[in-house]
Amino acid sequence: MTSRAGFVALIGEPNAGKSTLLNAMVGTKVSIVTHKVQTTRARIRGIALEGASQIIFVDTPGLFVPRRRLDRAMVAAAWSGAADSDLVLLMVEAHRGVTDGILRILDEFPSCASDWQIALVINKIDQVRAEALLGLTKELNERFPFTRSFMISATKGSGVDGLREWLAAQLPPGPWLYPEEQVADLPMRMLAAETTREKLTLRLHQELPYQLTVETENWEDREDGSARIDQVVYVTREGHKGIVVGKKGETAKSVGKAARLELEEILGRRVHLFLRVKVRPGWMTEAERFAAIGLDWSDAGS
Fold it and tell me: Of 59-73, 109-123, 281-295, which has the strongest mean pLDDT?
């Protein structure tokens, strides 16, 4: 059987279910998932195997109208991830239909997607009636000539296997690009930081999760097989620091415990996780902070 390998970009509006689909395809958690939009900031690669094919999924930030420098870098990362891939999956939420955001993405395709093979993936099909799904599929295909259309529920797994099988057959012949046992192309320091950021995002509310970032400052592999991980949470205001720390430090303790337990499961060993919270008003415009979360500062313009 001929081996195949290639890249598949997941694009769409924020909260379309890209990270959920990535995790379902890979079979383990490699991208953070929350109910909040714009959770994914950088391009995260998850690796799935299907027969003789190795599918490298690129989970991109959601496409939206950028307002800040960080926004612009995230949108640039999403389009760059699509341009560098062999196939592109446009994910649309079934219950939201053809939104202004989807129309903006479709408008972008003719100018940048002449060589792309683009498939339509309608997600969250369990939330609408069958006739609505058929109508949505018809309307989107009339607006753009998609290679194929799929209806799935990434959360429940419906249609995911069929989509993975189709993708595997479309990839170019060639040797695998990663070892068989590898499930993600993401530095462990960044994965650890993303795990903690997910727990913070789930615990906190309103605008604060977007205005914080987490960096792994130190990673020490100890002789007893455990790992000591020191992380810093950057927030933009003194008041935000109090929210993250919580009364008598309870919020930080709860977040740290949840992140530690998940990291122990991922790493298969004990983890000693230490969090510090720092106020850094300008982190969202600092090149060093962008690099730490996998974004290109220069992509954001001035």
Answer: 109-123
d(CA 251, CA 255): 6
- The predicted model scores a pTM of 0.66
The fold for domain 187-300 equals: GMP Synthetase; Chain A, domain 3 (3.30.300)
DSSP, collapsed to helix, strand or coil, labels residue 294 as coil
Superfamily name with CATH number, domain 4-170: P-loop containing nucleotide triphosphate hydrolases (3.40.50.300)
The pLDDT tens digits for 10-57 are: 888 878 888 889 888 988 776 655 554 445 555 567 889 999 999 988
Helices 188-203 and 250-267, axial angle in degrees (round to 10): 140
Nearest CA to 75 out of 105, 45, 52, 55 is that of 105
HSE of 98, CA atoms in CB hemisphere, 13 A: 18
List the alpha helices (DSSP H) in 93-172. 100-112, 130-143, 160-170
Cα distance between residue 116 and residue 148, in whole Å? 13
